[in-house]
Amino acid sequence: MSRVLVPLAPGFEEIEAVTVIDILRRAGVEVVTAGVGADGAIEGSHGIAVRCDAAAAEVDAGGFDAIVLPGGPGTGHLMESAQVRSWVTAMAGEGKLVTAICAAPTVLESCGLLKGRRATSHPNHAAEMRSRRYEETPVVKDGNIITSRGAGTAIEFAAALVSELASPDAARDVLTKIVYALR
User: Fold this and answer.
1) Which domain holds residue 51?
2) Can you tell me whether residue 66 is helix, strand or coil?
3) What is the pLDDT of residue 129?
4) Is 183 a domain residue?
């Protein structure tokens, strides 16, 4: 079974985090949430608090197959976290799946992971993504990097992750069960 790390920082976008966590778990992927910059429950950008499985300082990312960075106003906390940047850089270097949605691809950009790669982000952050080949499609995969545009693309983003971590059939099965049709 694949294992995925999802760091949550105060101000994370709830749809992007919870949708991805939910769909991955429905597909049988183990997801561990790690609280960044706060203890206990982490409050998202719309006042919804999520209790994390562990504090970021307690997590060894070596046993994970992928990392998912949700966006939202909390992206700045992810960007400032040496722990998160270390996880992202190490996992990318090991060829593991490194993924981000909405504003969070800017973290990948700041770590130097998007140089010459195809990527996307929320349109408000396109200018910050200087080294990538920017695309305006809902989900962009380039090697072991997957990026997505925002809350409205969270289900497609999650399905792309399931396709990579489990199988395309597993992704189709989950989408059928939640009555979602890909465009």
Assistant:
1) 3-177
2) strand
3) 83
4) no
Has 52 been annotated as catalytic?
no
DSSP assignment of 126-181 equals: GGG-TTSEE--SSEEEETTEEEE--GGGHHHHHHHHHHHHT-HHHHHHHHHHTT--
Q: What are 131-146's pLDDT values in tens digits?
A: 778 999 999 999 999 9
Locate 153 and state its tokens.
């693309």
Structure confidence at residue 128 (pLDDT) = 86
State the number of CA atoms in the 13 A half-sphere of 129 facing the CB. Answer: 30
Residue 50 backbone dihedrals phi, psi, to 5 degrees: -125, 130
CATH of the domain at 39: 3.40.50.880
Look at residues 48, 132, 145, 51 and name the one whose alpha carbon lies nearest to residue 101: 145
DSSP state of 124: G
Q: Which two tokens stand for residue 181?
A: 């049709």
Query: Has residue 152 been placed in a domain?
Result: yes
Question: Is this prediction's pTM over 0.70?
Answer: yes
DSSP H/E element including 141: strand 139-142
> Which member of 102, 114, 151, 159 is catalytic?
102
Q: Is residue 71 part of a domain?
A: yes
Residue 124 lies in a domain: yes
